[in-house]
Amino acid sequence: MSHSGKQVSRPCHHCKSRSASAPTDTSKIHYEKFWLYRHCSSVQQRDRQAQKAGQLFSGLLAMNVVFLGSAFISSMIFNRVAISLADVWILLSILKVLCLCWIIYYLLGTSRQPHAVLYRDSHAGAIWIRGSVLLFGCCSILLNVFHIGYSTILIHCKSRVEIVFPSIGILFICIQAYFLWHHSKDCIQVQHNFTRCGLMLAIATNLLLWLLAVTNDALHMEIQFQLREVEQRFAGKAPFSRNETALCMCPDMTICKVFQKGYILLYPFNTEYCLVCCSMLYVMWKNVGRRISHDHVPHIKPKFKFQGVVFGPVLGATAVIIGICIFMMYQIQTTGLAPNRQVLVMYYSYYIVLLPLMSVGAVIGTIIHALEKKELDTLKNPTRSLDVILLMGAALGQIGMSYFSIVALVASDPRDLLNSLILSYSVLLIFQNITQNVFIIDGLHRQRFIAATEAKHPGHAGQHVVAAELPGEEETTTSSKEEQTPPGKEEDMKEDQSHNQRRVSMLELGQEIRKASLSYIHSYSHLSWKRRALREISFFLVLCNIMLWVMHTFGGHPVFENGLERSFYGYSTWFVIVNFGLPLGVFYRMHSVGGLLEVYVTA
């Protein structure tokens, strides 16, 4: 081992003598020493080497689990005789049980050890993403309940695994949601390797559940077969021959129809839940063993204030109201077997008007970011890095579906009115996703604006408040003087007193409204035009993305119901494409709302 200049290399564990001049820090929690560390001849940074090795081994564990599960699912798709859906469910049930054992051990053992959680990542586990875990988790539980009820009614032709698998799924969703709600911010400092492996096992399990949900169209095929049989009966044709699929059909029972329709309606929520859990578990995996310095902890936490925006909420609320009306009409018209062509034209026309407005707003916001002289935030932030990756990755779902639609429409008949609208919608959707991603990512990497003017003039707001409160004191004084009346006129003064109290309360209400209006106008006028424009654009995009999330999440799936791409690619192929792209699109809208709120707060 050679020494050059003043730079002295750190002795490894093979050296029998340690440097006596290097004092040991007893308060520092070291990573545990494992195989790769013990057999490394020259370790310059022990903690970092152990961290990298732990991430490597846990990543290899997750990769092998994902490859094994993907092989099972692929074999089930291409050879249903050798590998059935029940075999895949058994494998996933084993993985769920292993994850539950590790989560329970973490909750009762690891997290309760001394010095286990010394740091918590303030950027991880935002309230909106934890709320989405609870929302999608509740919907996934209802989905499993409907699945259990549907399989129980058809127990004569269904496997008992179809009852056991969703039952384990309910327990897995409940415990995992509790774990993520309370411990998503943890930077665990003990049992690093075991914790990393447990988190990666949970990530791999959720990825396999998402992959199975994307590719498994068994129940959808049953419903599709039943719809085709009903259509043929209405047309006067003979029904299909009774094969294995036809023998296991939902009988003419109302409760069975409820289970069937509820399963179809809540199906996208399960895939969404898996994606959100994977993102939160990945942040926890990156935070294992992380030590957060005081420089990384924000001293002033930015808060959401509805001030400085006027046009954004107005335009956004208009888009939301129109969207709700169109969405309700779409849901009513598409309840039948054949969707109405006019409602599809109206649905796509709404998108064609809204998407260019969103794209223009994002482009203007990006230009304003370029004109600003705010420094970039270069501190290490795993949550922000993951946000950027998720925005780019989730946008691939809608972009991929749009390109598939463009190819199908150009190859068929692009001159038709509906086809032209769908083609325009697909092109505009690609452009809108790209421009919005650039705007959000650029805004996330900007440092938070510190209002220097507010710091210089801290007494202005108080002066306004005092000036607004003085008339109220005068009214109180006059009312107290009026109370000193002769005893003979008490009955006559009761009505006057109640009238004066109502008048005073109305005056106080008017003063409160006036005070709030003055404060709002004061804050709006003191914002620079760049900050004002960024807030207007961010708020407008937040409302628009919320509306698009609602339309995609609660049953607005024209890409599957218009029948154009489905007839071009075939039912099974288009089913996989839609179930791959649609949950990513829903996740993208939800994640965009969080990113845009962050841009709004930091503007």
Question: Would you kindly provide a written description of the structure presented here, covering whatever features stand out?
Answer:
- The chain has 603 residues and is an all-alpha fold.
- It has 2 domains: 247 residues, no CATH class; 231 residues, no CATH class.
- Helices cover 72% and strands 1% of the residues.
- Strands 1-2 form a two-stranded antiparallel sheet.
- Helix 10 packs parallel to helix 17 and helix 15 packs antiparallel against helix 16.
- The longest helix has 37 residues.
- The radius of gyration is 30 Å and the shape is globular.
- The chain starts with 34 loop residues before the first helix and ends with a helix.
- The N terminus is likely disordered.
Write the layout of secondary structure elements.
Layout: H1 35-38, H2 46-78, H3 85-108, E1 117-120, H4 127-153, H5 161-183, E2 186-188, H6 192-215, H7 218-235, H8 244-247, H9 254-286, H10 311-333, H11 341-371, H12 382-411, H13 417-444, H14 452-456, H15 460-482, H16 490-526, H17 529-553, H18 558-561, H19 564-569, H20 571-602
Antiparallel strand pairs: 1-2
